[in-house]
Write a structure and sequence with these properties.
two-stranded antiparallel sheet, 6-stranded mixed β-sheet, alpha+beta, about 20% strand, 8 strands, Thymidylate Synthase, Chain A, 10 helices, single chain
């Protein structure tokens, strides 16, 4: 089944089976007394779709993301730097909402660039690496500060490490890129945390498959963009592997795209816009 049919299927399921939920907070903001912030929610929505083309224009026609924003933002995500805030957030159609979550330095408490490239996240001004003491091209690179894991001898891995793992072990079950970090679990005050949990890549039978896990997804503002950006990541990883080992990876094609969302939802007013009076 194509992406556009899967999206329509999700829409119908939200209409027919979505149940009203009014959470205490949204992105750390108290919404308990704002009736318009109640949502209709579909729990544990999953779908699988075969990626039948590597042509972005065809995928864009099926998925209908916000363009050109999604293409430009994807370039930021895979740029290799933990940019924060970056530039493309301001071009998102709902940037007026995102702007409210920037701090006094104009930065977000997290974003995808920092989570894809966490080794130096938060250690340089705005996440730029060139010309700083964290420049990975420097001959003194090993003496500079890294973000480390629980053990002092571990350095946080990044998207390139995931590609390297697949290059060395194409059939590995370990190629997982986390977006939700332990610090998000520790956000006890209910602040802003990632909606995406992470991406699992696996190669089977000459196909590179991806499973994309999310805890939460707004059907109107994020669903199509989230699908499109994750498909682009699937294709980007495959392209990187083809560059490193064309003899092996040129025979590999994109495979299945699976998305699992614990809470797929839309706000009451969006429900009314799409379906008329709420049930």
């Amino acid at each position: 089944m194509s992406f556009d049919l899967r999206i329509q299927e999700a829409k119908i399921k939200l209409r027919d089976y979505g149940l009203k939920v009014h959470t205490e907070k949204w992105q750390g903001i108290d919404i308990s007394k704002h009736n318009a912030m109640a949502t209709y929610e579909l729990l544990n929505h999953s779908f699988t779709c075969e990626v039948q083309t590597e042509d972005r224009s065809v995928l864009a026609k099926e998925i209908e993301p916000n363009l050109p924003w999604a293409d430009n933002h994807f370039k930021e995500r895979v740029c290799g730097k933990p940019l924060n805030p970056g530039k493309e957030w301001a071009n998102w159609p709902y940037s007026h909402s995102a702007d409210k979550f920037r701090d006094a330095n104009g930065q977000f408490n997290h974003n995808y660039m920092e989570r894809y490239w966490p080794t130096y996240a938060g250690l340089t001004d705005q996440g730029e690496l060139s010309g700083t003491i964290c420049d990975p091209t420097s001959p003194h690179h090993d003496h500079f500060k890294f973000n480390r894991g629980v053990r002092p001898d571990t350095i946080l891995g990044d998207l390139n490490d995931l590609v390297k793992l697949l290059e060395e072990q194409p059939l590995t079950r370990q190629a997982y890129l986390p977006v939700f970090f332990p610090e998000d679990t520790g956000c006890v005050n209910g602040g802003r945390i990632p909606c995406s949990l992470g991406y699992h890549f696996i190669v089977r039978h000459d196909r590179l498959h991806i499973t994309y896990y999310l805890r939460s997804c707004d059907f109107v503002r994020h669903f199509r963009d989230d699908i499109y950006l994750a498909v682009l990541l699937q294709l980007w990883v495959l392209d990187q592997l083809r560059l490193r080992n064309p003899d092996y990876w040129n025979k590999i094609r994109p495979g299945l795209f699976t998305m699992h969302i614990v809470s797929l939802h839309l706000f009451v007013n969006d429900y009314i816009t799409l379906f008329g009076s709420p049930k």
